[in-house]
Amino acid sequence: MCGIVGFTGKAAPEATEKCREILLSGLENLEYRGYDSAGIAMAGEGEGITICRAVGRISNLRKAVAGCQPQGSCGIGHTRWATHGRPTVENCHPHEDEKHSVAVVHNGIIENYQHLKEELQRSGVEFNSQTDTEVIAQLLAHHYSGNMKDTLQKVLPLLEGSFALGVLDKNQPDCIYCARRRSPLLVAQGKDGSYLASDVSALLAYTKDVTYLEENGIAVLTPDSIRFYNENGSEIHPESTHITWDATAARKNGFEHYMLKEIFDQPTALRDTLNHYVDVELGCIRREAMPFTPEQAKALRRVTIAACGTAYHASVMGQSLLEQLAGIPALAAIASEYRYSNMPPVEGEVFIAVSQSGETADTLAALSYKKAQGLRTIALSNVLGSTIAREADAVMYTLAGPEIAVASTKAYLTQVLLFAILALDLAHLRGVIDDAKLKEGIAALAKLPEQVEEILAKQSVVQDFVQQQKDCRDIFFIGRLMDYASSLEAALKLKEVSYLHSEAYAAGELKHGTIALVDESCLVVVFATQTVVLEKTLANMEEVRARGAKLLLLGHFPEGAPEDCSLWNIGKTSDQLAPLLTTVYAQLFAYYMAKLHGCDIDKPRNLAKSVTVE
Ligand code: M6R
Questions:
Q1: How much is the pLDDT for 569?
Q2: Cβ–ligand 1 contact at 583 (below 6 Å)
Q3: Is residue 612 part of a domain?
Q4: Rounded distance between C-alpha atoms, residue 43 and residue 52, angstroms
Q5: CB atoms within 10 A of CB 31
Q6: Domain with 502 in it
Q7: Predicted pLDDT of residue 612
Q8: Arithmetic mean of pLDDT, 109-116
Q9: pTM as predicted
């Protein structure tokens, strides 16, 4: 989600200038990873550590660096996509301990940071930020033994969650220490010094031979050498990798388009979001992360949700999840319609605005409308500190990381996941389900990332199918209940990136008119995951088959597909979660159809990522 860069250079007259430039231009190359704030820390013999930070783009950091003139030939830098604490200077990386002896940049999420912070506070440590990262800097200083590598080995096992770290130690001003767990980090030896980065795109200007740190590994960089250690502290000698990508391909992690990269980001996005709200091992919800107290949950009588586009489709899923899992009456509405609807508020009603960007004008207007009615409001957003997140009374963030492609993919899956977590929490607080059922529900959520990975591993099945659809111009997506919401999202995804005509229908509605359009030239995609209406959905499929349509069936059918029908199977899960899995297939389908038709996938015609006009 964020970006890290580091450099320690050999002594030379221009060493300070060179180090600053490597850090700043490295961060510019990583800006696509996060761009709400950035900072660098530099160290030099007799200089201590100087930290320079700025809110906003790297161009702001450049101005700040020109003002504060940090000295030294060794430094670390970070561009941030905020997860804990708003994008302010205090929350920018690098973070340091209270004695200014250690500086840290961090990608990832420390799940137990609150607990660690409270322990340190009890022993008198004072904190300056709201971030999880500052805990690492304070812990390293607190446990410092005079040897940073040994200190890291002592501190890293205390951290739960994921991290890629770059650390400066005031006592060794030409050294960078780094470590990682479930978050990538790579290093490289150049002729002028040693480099560190979270993504290869930051280093391609200097070298194409890089070494990836192993899981739980540590590396120590000096200007002339890089030494690697495994989890137990034993020195190891990993092989380097020669990168053949150019800088643009590297930013997309080797994927041809951001849309495909973001589809493949989804297992991580789901894991990060889930771990933020749920303790999977204990099978319980993290109370402090949720927007409802037990009293508020019991007083709840109705939830109204408003959003636009894909976020609206996630809201339709949310409506079903709240109704089915928690028994709470819910209504999902299109924000641009709802804001003019004159809907009187109901006693015990809560309003939820859903927006990836947190800046969509119509969603913001719907939020203001409900606030003016005196309702309690909650935002579901992917962007920390966005307008919608700030305006609402409470906020739940999706931890999907920056979504760059115009077509929303990972934001959708994580929005639906948030609704599932919220519905389970409310069901539990209202006594609809007991502890055992809550645990069962959480266990099902915890399987999702792996199930998504299994579908992604079958992308060639989608590619092959798409190759056979060259002449297809009309595509209908049909399904019932939550599968209808999946159909809406699948049709939108396909039309926005491939410009093909596609429509979504509640399967039972076809025979009330639309079936007149169906003939041999159509492809009908059938979502069939909802057990209670499965037979009815399959009967609707037969109706379109009888009109000569080509058929594609999505669901859990281990016994195989009906004759003359292509089948994309998903793993076994609950009816409530199955639509998340079929959606991954639909995203891949839209992507490969767009590719087949040579469309500008990441920037479709007439569309913008953030719609800030009404
Ligand atoms: O940032 P938001 O979630 O509020 O954006 C809402 C829609 O504009 C957005 O989902 C749009 O429909 C996407 N292009 C769909 O892929």
A1: 94
A2: no
A3: no
A4: 12
A5: 16
A6: 459-596
A7: 67
A8: 92
A9: 0.81
